[in-house]
Amino acid sequence: MKSFRWHRFSDPEFLGRMKPQLLNRLLSPYKHFLTGEGVDFEEEQPDYEGLVAAFTSPSHTPPEELLEALCYIDEIAIEANHDHLVDAWHQGEGCRDGQELSAADLAVLLWLEDRPAIERLYAEQYMTSQSRFDWSCHTNTRDTQAGRSESRTC
To answer: What is the C-alpha separation between 104 and 20, in angstroms, rounded?
Structure first.
């Protein structure tokens, strides 16, 4: 089975810093898949070790929407993005205070409640401009009986 390399979702400490109710809200639609991977949802605290195992080395193919959520949140949920996440959160419905939330919590909330906002933020932060294509042309000059001829190789 395929394995995944996450920056943050492979760290139980990262998961432990998230508000448990937000993590459960994010993962509840995928409870069937996660319990099949051995994650225990019966405990008061989330099964962080079980989640890391299910995220990094699942025995079954994870739901595509779960992978998409993990990809966006994993990339954007760094403290360096906290102010950008707060700004995106404030631009949503009503006046919402996000200062007391971690970058991970804000990323989860945006994914759950305003997916276009996190997609825009991701694009602004991580999409690069079109790569420049460099090429060169070599000119070979050689003397022939009739004079000089040139050949170009591109």
So the answer is: 12
